[in-house]
Amino acid sequence: MKTEAKIKRNLMVFLIGLLAILFFSPLQAQVVRDHRTKTKTTKKKNNSTEIFSPIDAYKTKTNKNKKSSTDISSPGDYYKNYDFSKNAANQQFNKAEFLGDAPSFTPTNYSSKLQGISNNKDYWFFTQLTKIKKIPVGYDLTKDANNSSDSRIKTAWMPKVLSDKEYDHFGDPDNFNGYLFVPVQTPSKYRDENDNPVSNTKLPEAVLLDRYGKKRRRYPAVIAIFDENTLEFIDYYELNSKSEGGWVTINPITKELYTSESIVTREKPIVRYSINWDKLRLNNKLELKKEGAFHINYNALPNVWPKRGFDTYMQGGDFSDDGVFLYLTNGQWRPIGGGWTKSRGLHIIKNVNHKEGIWQKSSTQSGDDDLKYKYRSTTQEPEGLTYFDLRNDSRITDSNSKGQVHAILLNKVTSKHLIKHFRVYITNSN
Q: What DSSP letter does each residue of 126-175 carry, written as one string?
């Protein structure tokens, strides 16, 4: 009897234990999965490291039905942000080397009142006040481009819809997804009924008459968009500010548009706009939405600077191909007495999370640390720049041009220009 009772008791314990294992195992497995997803940690498995997959986070994010300022619309977008985070963490600015000027103050028909420069890996795009010139990479930039027999060279002018509103100033452009984005502004100075120049700051509404009695108003800056293949004008979008729009660049990771007012400080940061890419692609309509600011940490700026920020006219900006570094140019000529030059020239900013950046280095007149951007502020003015890695490009034969950062300097008196070329050295700790 005792033996039979003992067998029944052991059988009951076995059945209870079996039910417990079947019941609690799925719950335990679910806890492990949730823990990996939420904490993005790694765990050991068969002496190997199982890395958190960004696709898991994408699924978790989409299930929450919450939108951030940077909309992650596909697994591919999340992979790009995941890769960016790794790149940004591993990359550190080391030094920059000034290679030379090419061309060097060459009088060409595309350099008159030159404002900006961009590229799509096969072509250079130059903006003048009211003209855009598309020139193939490898073309001798010391030569005129208007009368060239090269059929690849194309020209576009200020669209009539904008020139009718007195827009007369293209800024520093950028290429992305087959489009050329060009900031456009109206003049900062106006003329009265006697055709005399008048500063718009003297009138609250800046409404004046031109020589024909037509009212002139300084409209808000706009972003115009062109087909980068044909240079055909597509559409434009009016920004919220008259002071924004001197330059523009597209963040290659978030696909957002970045621009700023004429100065960039803690109080006036760079501004981010999202782009409705579906509407642009399907309907040829450019629609932007202001998403917020891109703040720069200026704590490491030299003490000789007059302000914590870039307190003189912003001219150009462009991201590196991986989005980790943002390069900026600023400065304005003053024909009498010159101006402050320590906070003007080329600046290197590290992009932390698309909303914040950290100042890394600025050029100097003397070329300290080999980041030299020398110019005379009484006759010359910095203009736009572009990031284009030409270190191993066989189309470029001039060794002075084989860098990654290319910045324009314009002689305001003669309209001659040069392009300063820099090689940037980034240390990868991975």
A: EE-SSEEEEEETTS-TTS-STT-S-TT-EEEE--HHHHTTT--EE-B-EE
Q: In this structure, are residues 172 and 383 in contact, taking their beta carbons and an 8 Å threshold?
A: yes
pLDDT tens-digit map of 85-122: 777 888 999 999 999 998 887 777 777 788 999 999 99
CA distance 419 to 416: 11
| Token couple for 238 | 């009016």
CA distances 339 to 261, 312, 318, 336, 348, Å, are 20, 10, 25, 9, 22
Which residue type sits at 90?
N
Which band of pLDDT confidence, cut at 50, 70 and 90, is reported for residue 149? confident
Return the closest-CA partner of residue 244 out of 225, 270, 266, 224.
270
| Range 236-241, long-range pairs (CB < 8 A, 24+ positions) | 236/159, 236/161, 236/162, 236/184, 236/286, 237/286, 237/287, 237/288, 239/288, 240/290
How many CA within 13 A on the CB side of residue 177?
A: 17
Residue 309: phi, psi to the nearest 5?
A: 155, -175
Q: What is the pLDDT of residues 66-82, one digit of tens each?
A: 433 344 445 556 556 66
Q: Give me the long-range contacts of 230-234 (CB less than 8 A, separation at least 24).
A: 230/154, 231/132, 231/134, 231/154, 231/155, 231/156, 231/180, 232/156, 233/156, 233/159, 234/179, 234/284, 234/286
Would you state the structure tokens that stand for residue 275, as one six-digit string? 């782009």
User: Helix axis angle, 2-39 relative to 54-63, nearest 10°?
Assistant: 90
Q: How many residues does the chain have?
A: 430
